[in-house]
Each structure stands twice: as structure tokens, then as C-alpha cells.
Amino acid sequence: AGLLAAGAALWAASASPSAADAGPMARIGGGTYMLGDPRIGRRAVALDEFWIDRAEAPAKAGGYSYSDALSYCLKQGKRLPSEDEWEAAAGTRLFPWGEDADAGRAACEGRRGPNPRDLSPSGCRDMSGNLAEWTSSPGRRGDGTRVVRGGNWERSLEGCTVWSREELPVSRRAPTLGVRCAARAPPREGH
User: Fold this and answer.
1) In this predicted model, what pLDDT tens digit does every residue of 160-182 receive, in sequence order?
2) Contact (CB, 8 A) for 95 and 161
3) Cα–Cα distance between 82 and 138 in angstroms, integer?
4) Could you give the 3-state DSSP secondary structure of residue 87?
5) How far apart are CA 141 and CA 185, in angstroms?
6) d(Cα 72, Cα 49) in Å, to the nearest integer?
7) Helix/strand/coil (H, E, C) string of 141-170?
């Protein structure tokens, strides 16, 4: 029984982000991910390895337009994640932490601000609530729109899922819109 318990503890430790991985960006391995809301249909998407910020941009508490979000990432030497990259980093489940709704884990329903319990398997925080986040992916209506992913502090818990998705005009600003940056290569020291 002791060996079984030790094996379970080792598995649990390896399944969560380690202290060595606790930098400002999380590494998302390349491979094929099953993405999309299963109620509509999932699809296999091949992604190259990328890095993504563990936290939403701290520059301001929302109100980003697409141009603001893009500019913020470029100033950091990064870029906006694609919609597929964002979803892969969020964990591809109903909520970043799993399938069960837990109002204490997401900044939704009027609770504003970061919630350290809203954590994806890759170690990214606040992907279901606080601020919805711009991606680089154009909406179906054309280049004047971009996809925004995740819930926000104004939504109900049911609207704060990994699959929450909107297509908004690039000029749209709202206090519920934020940004998280990505990069193709690991961050350099001092960045």
C-alpha cells in the first residue's frame, strides 16, 4: 500500500505545474489537440510548441481593444495567441480546472479580479473568468473582427467556460476585455 501511495503522490506532483515551471510563461507542447465545444463538435488541431503568459496582462484592468491588445503584446516582444492556442492552454475541458462548476474558482457573477484557484493544467490563471481575452484569430465575418475567448466577471458561471467565445469588432472596448500574450520561443532572461 505504501508503494501505491508513493506512486500516486509522484503522479499528482507531475500532473501539476512544478516550481521550475512557475515562470511568467507556460510552455505548451506541440501535438494534436481535440478542440471545440463538444456540444457543437470537436476537431483535431495540430499545434506547434508555444509559450503563453500565465496571467492576464496587468497593464490595466480591462478595456482593451484588439489594437490595444496587439500593441501590448508587441511591446513585450510577444504576440497574441491564436484561438486554438488559447484553448489548448486553457485545458480543453469545460472549465480550466475540470468539468464541475465551482463558483469559488472563477471571477464571474460580479466577482472581479484575479482568482488563483482558476488554474488550467498548464498553470495559466483566470482563463474562465475575470477578463475575456482577445486572440489573433479573425471572426467569421471578416478581418474587421477577432475572436475573444473565455468568460468575464459580468457573466454567470455557465458563461465562464473554456468554450466561451465571441467575435467582436476590432475597435470594441469594454471593461471586460483583456489580453494574454504568447510567443513561439521560450522567453529570454529579463523579458
Assistant:
1) 999 999 999 999 999 999 999 99
2) yes
3) 9
4) helix
5) 31
6) 22
7) CEEEEEEEECCCCCCCHHHCCCCCEEEEEC
89: enclosing H helix or E strand: helix 83-90
Residues 37, 121, 54, 175, Cα dihedral to 10°:
40
Report if pTM > 0.70: yes
* Interatomic CA distance for residues 21 and 47, integer angstroms: 20
DSSP string, 3-69: HHHHHHHHHHHHHS--GGG-SSEEEE--EEEEES-TTT--EEEEE--EEEESS---SSSS---HHHH
Check if the beta carbon of residue 180 is closer than 8 Å to that of residue 126. no
Q: For residue 128, give every residue at least 6 positions away whose Cβ sits within 8 Å of its Cβ, in sequence order, or none.
A: 90, 95, 96, 105, 106, 108, 118, 150, 151, 160, 161, 162, 164
Q: Residues 10-50: pLDDT tens digits?
A: 223 333 344 345 689 999 999 999 999 888 899 999 999 99
Q: Which residues pair with 27 in a beta bridge?
A: 51
